Amino acid sequence: MALIALKPGEVGAVVTYLEMTSAPRPKPLPDSPLRLVPWRQPDPAKYRILFERVGKRWLWFSRLAMDDDRLRGEIQELHAVIDRTGTEIGMIELDFRQAGECLIRFLGLVPELAGRGHGRWLFAQTLALAWRPGIGRVHVNTCTLDHPAALPAYLKAGFRAYKRALESFPDPRIGGLLPADAAPQIPLVEDRGG
After folding, report:
1. What pTM does this model have?
2. Among residues 50, 94, 41, 37, which one has the least CA distance to residue 72?
3. Is the Cβ–Cβ distance between 79 and 88 less than 8 Å?
4. DSSP H helical segments within 96-174, as ranges?
5. What is the pLDDT of residues 89-117, one digit of tens each?
């Protein structure tokens, strides 16, 4: 067994790659007071606000580091999850650029909704959007920094793990992409200069 040391200021995670190669049997979508609204050509500033609200607890930062032009180029299909008041409280981001495939780029709700049963609805909506005509594979990556229920939920939904990788990156809290109090469950380890 080998431990791989990370440099001070870095975060590490095990990434699990998951896929479905056949659509699940159709079943009724779970009831929910939430609904989806497509965001066509989203404003980058508005997108980043939602992205951070959903993901800062899990150190989502990749989209925060992109300039507006690159961000616009990366977003292919985006749906905001909204509550009864019209407030954006989650997102589904899908990518269909690879012929015959759907990559689930981001999927999540604000942390305050965890454990309230909305995840089943969100997964059902995501799969309904992903499995459109011509799609033969839906895939997603999750990591050990994500919500602890993420990987079991993907497996329960019918995804199969096919690969793992170790990932390390500069802690986005140190560079200011995320606030210092983001992801309190992941200790901040900074270089002590000596």
Report:
1. 0.92
2. 41
3. no
4. 118-130, 150-157
5. 999 999 999 999 999 999 999 988 777 67
